[in-house]
Amino acid sequence: MWQGTGRVSEIRLGSGGKTELYITCPANLVPRAGQFVMALAADSLDEVIRTPIFTAEQTGRGFWAAPLNPVKWSPGTVLDLARPMGHGFELPSGIERLGLAAVGDTLARLMPLVHQVAPTRAALTLFSDLAIPALPAMVEISPLAWLKESLDWPDMLVLDIPLERLPELRSLLGLHDRSWLPCPAQVLLTTFMPCAGMAGCGACAVAGRRGWKLVCEDGPVFDLRTIRW
Amino acid sequence: MPKYDLSFTPPIMNAAGILGFAPGNRDMLDWSELGAFVTNPVSIGPRTPARGKRFIPYPGGFLLHSGYPNPGFTQVLRRYAGRWKRSPVAVIVHLLAQAAGELETMAHRLEVVEGVQALEIGVSSEASATMVGEFTQAAVGELPVIVRLPLECAPKLAMCAIQAGAVAISLAPPRGLMPAGEEEFVQGRLYGPSIFPNALMVIRALKQQGAPVIGAGGIYSREQVNAMLIAGAMAVQLDSALWRDSGSKIFQ
Q1: What confidence tens digit (pLDDT) does each residue in B87-126 have?
Q2: What would the DSSP string read from start to end of A158-190?
Q3: Which residues on chain B are in Cβ contact (under 8 Å) with A192?
Q4: Which residues from B are below 8 Å from A83, CB to CB?
Q5: Cα separation, B243 vs A80, whole angstroms
Q6: What CA–CA distance (Å, rounded) separates A37 from B64?
Q7: Which domains can be identified in chain A, with CATH numbers?
Q8: Handedness of CA B15, B19, B25, B30 (dihedral sign)
Q9: What is the least distance, in Å, from the CA of A93 to any CA of chain B?
Q10: CB-based contact B103:B135 (threshold 8 Å)
Q11: Is the ipTM of this complex over 0.90?
């Protein structure tokens, strides 16, 4: 399972004052948008469990990781990295209007999609109340509260939300109990994943339409229709 | 009397709930490093994951409140019995029960399942000595029975289990309470290096009582494995160290 090493080679202050780390590593250890790698400082005695890290931006010989809270590592830290895990985002071809919504504490996990869509002619709106980083000019920014008024706009909606806030989603979208989104939606659920699929321990379980699903194995990106929310 | 004696070579195995229901489904371990494989807890009916907050880290460890989700005994047999038969190491099935009758049913059915070499039964931290005795007797049959007692009550209950027919005692993680919001608390199992000194003390106490014991709790290094064996454990079970780095600091 553990496939190689990386190194924290740069550090920067991202939007909202959050620290972002650049991790140099082999290309096969860079997670795709929505995937994660489980990481651990190679010489650490204090880290009891691995930390999932997501890509914010893939560039050069590694990737900028989405901010960690707390920041555990500094430049020079050597990391044991597992192979990328989980189901990432899958954007269908031909999207003309993509809506992105960040409900958690960072936009960073959605940024690879911005960079993926930016060169196309698709329109992109980012719904968020967080501090906004530098973005391509084609990206429109809206407050999160506007999302419920805009549901008939996108061809597809992509959400990033902590698992514990999933019960708020229906109200956030302004949907009544039995109503559905008018467009397909993918959701990235973030939570602790202590066993990372080794045990099916259930710590990251989410109720699915057909039984329980595990964020670490079945996600972390889900088709919104397949989970209960 | 149980058909088999228990011995483990090497004297290291995983703890229940750490590596799933069957060995060989992951590429992270060299199975020759383990003397046995312990399944995730299996209950007579299906169990769903616990609701609410399930994982809370703290310095030196973490609290896990998973609810021991599993698809139920019949489904587990259907899905995993074939893999137990082909297992590269001895399989110990961990059983979880609310009543002695459930254990008797499951233990009896497992006696004819190839690859299963022993049973481990889980006992809650609220269990009385009487209940430990009843549960153990219900599970004892042709397969050796290991009784897993919570660390905090193992010295008090171990001999009840042994007298009822258990061949060994293993140690479940201690339970603890963590705040999970302004006025909420979550109770769950505690894992991490901070558990080790308590676990070692319990092993020594059980050894002094004459109970065969499989040590567990906070093992993150080879030295800690050796310390438990020197303190009197017949073998050890690894837990969160396997999640951390596949036990690389233990197997190196």
Answers
A1: 999 999 999 999 999 999 999 999 999 999 999 999 988 8
A2: EEEEEGGGGGGHHHHTT--TT---SS-EEEEEE
A3: 54-55, 57
A4: none
A5: 13
A6: 21
A7: 2-82 (2.40.30), 97-226 (3.40.50)
A8: negative
A9: 34
A10: yes
A11: no
